[in-house]
Design goal:
Largest sheet: 5 strands, parallel
Radius of gyration: 15 Å
Number of domains: 1
Distance between the termini: 29 Å
Oligomer: single chain
CATH class: Alpha Beta
Amino acid sequence: MVFDIEPLVASWDSGQRELDQGVESVLARAGSVPGVRVVCFATNSSRRPSAPLAGTGVRAVYLASAGKPLRTAFYRGFPRPGVVIGDQLGTDGALARRLGYAFLQYCPDPGGIPAGPRLMDWFGRLARPLLFTRPR
């Protein structure tokens, strides 16, 4: 499981405390799902948790400045099948496609989305047919 940080784990404008609590909460929940072996948190920002990740029975990885969707080497040793959970088709969705993972898109309330992510969402919607249309 690969989780996008903003806005799934912590909101875009949140501080360190919300990030730490969000990471801890997701790890606790994902660790209780049968079959989950790796939980990865990936963000293109430089945000990092304040303490090392402590997964309960799962491998926990945090990738800051991940370079989604261009850099995939970080994910090479991850088990298959997998899933990327995020809000952006252009980054999270494209990463899922490159990894051969499923993509679950989270759609936050449009009123709370900052300008940058809102613009990325618009471009992602344009790219949807290229990324997620099955060839005939």
